[in-house]
Every structure is written in C-alpha cells, then in structure tokens.
C-alpha cells in the first residue's frame, strides 16, 4: 500500500516538473494574437538563380500581302557578347509562334570577351539534299518566335559552364548576375527577286560660255530622274547650277550654256536594309 502511494506521488511530481518551471511558474508560451509575418525571399547567392533573355526572331519568306510583314526575305541575327574575362556557357531554345519548331536546348560556349551569334540558319537547320555537301538554308515559309537564352547560377557558380567542362570555380557577386553578357538582335529583310526597284539617270555633257569672257568651261553631270517623265536637260542643268552656286562663281543669266551629248542610264537595285536593332534586357528569377 505504501509502495502504491509513493508511486502516485512520484508521478504527480514528475508531471509538475514538466509543466512548471523551477520557480513554480508556467513555462508553456501561448500563441501570439498577432498574425505571423511571411518570410521574405532571400536575395543572396545561396539561392538558385536563372538569368533569361528573350529575343525575337523573324525567319523565312513572305511572298504576298498576307502579312504579318511586307513581302520579302527575312532573317534575324542575335549576337551574344561575353563581357567577362572568363568563358560563359549559355543554353538557348527557339520557341516558334506556330509551334512547329520544338527544338531542345542547345549548348553554346562563348570565350572570354568574345561574340557568338544565333541566326535563322541555326534556328532552322534544314539540309539541302541537292547540294554536294549538306548545308544549312533559310526556310521558305515565314516563321516568327522567341529565342530563349538562359544562364543558371547556384551559390555564385555558373552552372552552365559545367556542361562544357569549363572552370566553374569563379564566385560571382550579386551585381554580376545580370551583367555577364550583352544580347542584341539585328532584323534584316531583302526584297523578293520580282520586287526590284528600277533607277534612271541622265548623263549630260555641257559647256558654259561666259558672255564677257572668251573661255569655255566643259562639264559632265549625272542627274537622277524619274521614269516615264518628260525632262528638259537644259533646265535641269541650270537649276542644279543655281542650287550649288552658293558663291556665285557662275552667273547663269550672264552665261551661255551649250548642251552636248546626253545619255539615259538605267539600273535595277535590290532593296536590302536593316529593319531594326534591339537590345535585350535580362530577367532574373
């Protein structure tokens, strides 16, 4: 009986010791009535970070007015400049609007302070089977989309560099993450073969005879004229002399202009020009 009483007292003592502190006060803390503040995301390099660049591309041919751009042959050239004194490996993927291009990521190593490029021939590696050696040719169908260029950083290390067995022991600062490379896009267009532009020139030999002098000055000039237009060579010469005669070396009214041989020169030019140059900013996540 005494043993049972002792056991009960011992159990009660142990329970009080667990609940009460040594000074007899309750040590269990009640939950605060204030709401818990959410944890703010860390900005240090301990987290895995990804730097993405999204560059637009226009590739192929538009042969009619169906759009989305004017008829022509389109190409885009995306240049990637490594600004650092160590190699950087990027991975890139083409994402077409029509979803017909479903390539996997491609690995591209850029040496220190060097430039690499991605153009339509690399986006669409189409083989020309009629050629002796298979080469890349531009697609005939027009396709537009986005090139995704990605750099991954983990604990300050360039994760992509390990894909090319590059030295990955370079620790980056926070400010370096979005300042590793420059990405620029050049969009160009060539007109189609049947959309060439014709230009016409007038070549004229003429002489200027001042009325108060006996000397004769001979000249040859080439003037741009419009096709299907009636022109007066003598009037064109007088107007051009008046426009360029700022110092009044030649007095058109006091001189006699003698027109010599004339010749019409025509040529066909292909319109080839850059549409736009775009700098692509990084998105860090």
What does this structure look like?
The structure is a single chain. The chain is mainly β. The chain has two domains: 49-194 and 273-284, no CATH class; 197-269. Helices cover 12% and strands 42% of the residues. The protein has three helices and 15 strands. Strands 1, 2, 3, 4, 5, 8, 9, 10, 14 and 15 form a ten-stranded antiparallel sheet that branches. A three-stranded antiparallel sheet has the order 12-11-13, with helices on one face. It has a two-stranded antiparallel sheet with strand order 6-7. β6 and β7 (136-137) form a beta hairpin. Residues 17-45 and 131-136 have low confidence and may be disordered.
Let me know the average pLDDT.
Answer: 74
Uncertain runs: 17-45, 131-136
> Strand-residue fraction?
35-45%
| Tally of alpha and pi helices | 3
Write the layout of secondary structure elements.
Layout (H helix, E strand, L loop, with lengths): L1 H18 L29 E14 L9 E11 L5 E9 L9 E5 L4 E5 H4 L2 E2 L8 E2 L5 E12 L2 E2 L22 E10 L6 E14 L6 E9 L7 H12 L10 E15 L2 E9 L2 E2 L1
Short recap of the structure:
This protein is mainly beta and 285 residues long. 12% of the residues lie in helices and 42% in strands. The strands form three sheets. Strands 1, 2, 3, 4, 5, 8, 9, 10, 14 and 15 form a ten-stranded antiparallel beta sheet that branches.
What descriptive keywords fit this protein?
285 residues; mainly beta; 2 domains; 10-stranded antiparallel beta sheet; 3-stranded antiparallel beta sheet; 3 helices; 12% helix; elongated
């Amino acid at each position: 009986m005494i043993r049972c009483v002792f056991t009960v007292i011992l159990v009660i003592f142990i329970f009080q010791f667990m609940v009460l502190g040594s000074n007899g006060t309750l040590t269990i803390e009640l939950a605060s009535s204030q709401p818990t503040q959410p944890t703010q995301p860390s900005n240090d390099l301990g987290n895995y970070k990804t730097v993405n660049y999204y560059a637009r591309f226009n590739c192929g041919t538009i042969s009619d007015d169906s759009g989305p751009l004017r008829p022509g042959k389109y190409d885009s050239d995306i240049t990637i400049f490594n600004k650092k004194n160590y190699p950087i490996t990027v991975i890139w993927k083409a994402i077409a609007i029509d979803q017909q291009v479903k390539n996997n990521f491609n690995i591209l190593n850029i040496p220190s302070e060097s430039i690499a490029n991605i153009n339509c021939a690399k986006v669409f590696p189409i083989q020309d089977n009629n050629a002796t050696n298979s080469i890349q040719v531009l697609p005939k169908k027009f396709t537009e989309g986005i090139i995704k260029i990605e750099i991954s950083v983990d604990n300050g290390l360039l994760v992509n560099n390990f894909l090319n067995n590059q030295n990955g022991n370079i620790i980056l600062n926070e400010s370096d993450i979005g300042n590793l490379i420059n990405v620029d896009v050049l969009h160009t267009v060539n007109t189609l073969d049947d959309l060439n532009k014709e230009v016409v020139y007038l070549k004229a030999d003429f002489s200027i005879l001042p009325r108060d002098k006996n000397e004769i000055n001979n000249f040859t000039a080439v003037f741009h004229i419009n096709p299907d237009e009636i022109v007066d060579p003598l009037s064109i010469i007088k107007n051009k002399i008046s426009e360029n005669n700022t110092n009044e070396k030649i007095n058109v009214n006091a001189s006699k202009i003698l027109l010599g041989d004339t010749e019409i020169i025509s040529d066909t030019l292909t319109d080839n020009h850059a549409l736009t140059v775009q700098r692509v900013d990084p998105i860090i996540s």
